[in-house]
Each structure stands twice: as structure tokens, then as C-alpha cells.
Amino acid sequence: MIDLNDLRNNKEEFIISLQKRGLDDIEKNLSKLISLDDERKSIKTKLDNLLSESNKIAKEIGIKIKSGNNDIKDFKEKSSEIKDKSKSTGEELKTIEKEIQNILVNIPNIPDSKVPEGNSENENIEILKNEVDIDENQKLKPHWELIKDFNLIDFENGNKITGAGFPIYTNKGAKLQRALINYFLDEAEKNGYIEIQPPILINEQSGFGTGQLPDKEGMMYKIEDENLFMIPTAEVPITNMYRKNIIENKDLPIKNVGYTPCFRKEAGSWGAHVRGLNRLHQFDKVEIVHIEKQENSEKALATMCDYVENLIKSLEISYRKLLLCAGDLGFASSITFDFEVYAPGQKRWLECSSVSNFKSYQSNRMGLKIREGKDKVLAHTLNGSALALPRIVAAILETHQNRKEINLPKALHKYTGFKKINL
What we know:
Blueprint lengths: L3 H6 L1 H9 L6 H41 L6 H32 L20 E6 L12 H7 L3 E2 H7 L6 E2 L1 H20 L3 E3 L4 E3 H6 L12 E2 L4 E3 L4 H6 L5 E3 L5 E10 L18 E11 L4 H17 L5 E5 L11 E9 L4 E12 L1 H6 L2 E4 L2 E4 L1 E9 H11 L1 E2 L2 E3 L5 H4 L3 E3 L1
Parallel strand pairs: 4-9, 8-14
Antiparallel strand pairs: 1-11, 2-3, 5-7, 6-7, 9-10, 10-16, 11-12, 12-13, 13-16, 14-15, 17-18, 18-19
Helix pairs in contact: 3-4, 5-12
């Protein structure tokens, strides 16, 4: 959530930055916010004065009664009048604070100065690309054919049990899932991350804290009677562990990693680009989360990107790194780098990781601060997929297929207990 004081001091910069996101009416909304905040301050001053006057009269009544003077009728009437005014002014203050809050929570984060202009994913900037050698003479199958041939995933029974987008992993397909999860967690631990196993249900406050609510409510599965939501990513419960916390300087940086199943409605289009593992409603993902001081968050983002890149590289698949344009940037993110892997059977690039710096946007919503001497300042939060499994599995199967077998990356051999998947 943007800070009103920052908005007052940097209004023109905020307008220009948010217009990069395509928010053409943002100048009007920001001006309205400042105007409402001015009105709020005026009402608050009025209320404070009324409460002060009420306290003064109460003291005078007490003095009179203590001295034996019971002629306090006028004072009581005045006190009652002020209390009525205080009550109505307090209600007026609550109304305008709610109006301000409703506007604030629907304004996305300010894009970092490095974020390019653009309206869609077509205008994202490719930063780097690393391609592995593939036998171009071999007829490569897409993964949805390979999983049938090698009996790795059962979509039909998943559809029968739950619905489309809820696969059942079987045989070596299930072992490959478990191997990838364990490999990703072990690599994170080697790089200084503390493993967390969080709940997969969150309350509304947690969804609000990281910015999924109210922005992404339509994409989340909700348990109506409980007012709980299935998590779309481990980012939400892990980051919210620190909601309303004051973190000591000596405890930074905080680096957590967690594996969870993730749940997203992902309503939308049909076709090959969403076939098989390309788009699911339930999928497995390992997430890394950082809590950092403001001056260290840019360096932390670069470190996280390097870590994710090396993780993908170890799987011996082609990948590329993209800097998202403002129009493709997530609601709460200030800057995001996407990693995509190449699925040669589909001849398609598939996103498998987003690494983002939210700066103080999430921490302002959560009340997450760092103690710096006598001051308390907002923390910077960052997170990234390390990694989301479905498209990684798709890329591994399609890249390493070899007629009657699929060769697995060397990094996974000790985790799977086998080097190949055979017919």
C-alpha cells in the first residue's frame, strides 16, 4: 500500500510512475486522496478539540463537586452537547477514513525506475537466454503425449475426482515430483534459507497483507463458511508470519523457503498453451521469501535471481530471463523478473518463476517494521518461485525425451533413485 506522506511529497513522481501501468485516471484519484486526507486532518483536529474541551469540563465538574458546590447543571448540559458533537464527528472521521482506505488498497505499487513502459507481456524485455542442444532431427512430442506414453500423470481420474486442472501423479511421475521438491528445498538450505512448512489456508487479513485481496479474490478458492482462502502461493502465509512484527536489525536478513501445494482458479482461454501441465488449478511450488532493509533489497533481488537461474540451469533445460514491463507487472510488485523454460515439444516458452521486489508496499499493508535505533521503519519484502513444478516437469520431459526413454538431469539422480524413465 502506498504511503500518504510519500504521496504528498512525491505526487508528480507517483502520477508518472503509475501512468506507466496504464492507469490514465490515476492523477484524479491521487488528487482526491490528498483532498480527502486534508479533510480527515481537519475533522481529526475538530474531534481532538472537542475531546479536550469535554475533559476540561469533566475536571471542572469534579472540582465543583469536591468543593461542595452542586450547581453543575449548565456544565452537564454543555458536557452532553459536546459528547453528542464528539460522537457525530467521530462517525464522520470513520466514514472518511474508510473512503481513504478503499481508494488506497486499490492503488497498485509504484513501478521501479528500471521497469520499462508497456501494456502487455509482448513488451517485456529479454535480459538473457541460455539454450541447451536438442536433436533437431528427432520428432519431439509435447509432454501431454509423453505422460500418457510413460504413464506418469493421470488427468482423467483427476478430472473424475475433482475436475479439470487437478492431476494425479503416478509411478515415476510421482517420484519425479517428490525428487524435484526435495532437490529445490535442499538447494535452498545450502544457500542459507530456513525451511518453513506453512498452512495452506489463510484468513482475509493475510490475503490483504500481501496484496492478493481484494485484487485477486476472483482467482482464489474460498471456503465460504469459514471465510478462509486456499493459498495461491507460499508467499502469502510465509510473509504474513511477520505481519505486525517489529524486527530487530540484528535478525536481518530473513530468508525463508517453503514447499506447498498452490491453488488458483486460472479462469481463461482454451488451447494448446493451457494444455496438460501448462495451466493447473492445483500445483506444487517451492517459494523463497526475503525480509530486508531498504538499502539492501535491490542487491537481494539480484541474488535471488542468480539463485533461481542456477537452479534452472542445473536441470539442463533452456531458459530465459525477462524484465516485466509496467503493464504486465503484478499488483503489489515494484519490479519483477520472470524466468521461462523452453518446451521443445510444444515449441513454446513457459513461465516457471517470478522473482519480485515489493519494497515497502506489502510491509505497509501488514504493519511490518524494522527497529533502527529509536525509529521504526518499514521493511522491504521480496519473494520468488524456486521453482514452480508443472512447467519445469513439462520442459524436462520434452527436452530430455529420446524415443523410448526420458533421460533425467544429473542433479536429480540421487533424489529419484533412477536416471531414466523407460517405456
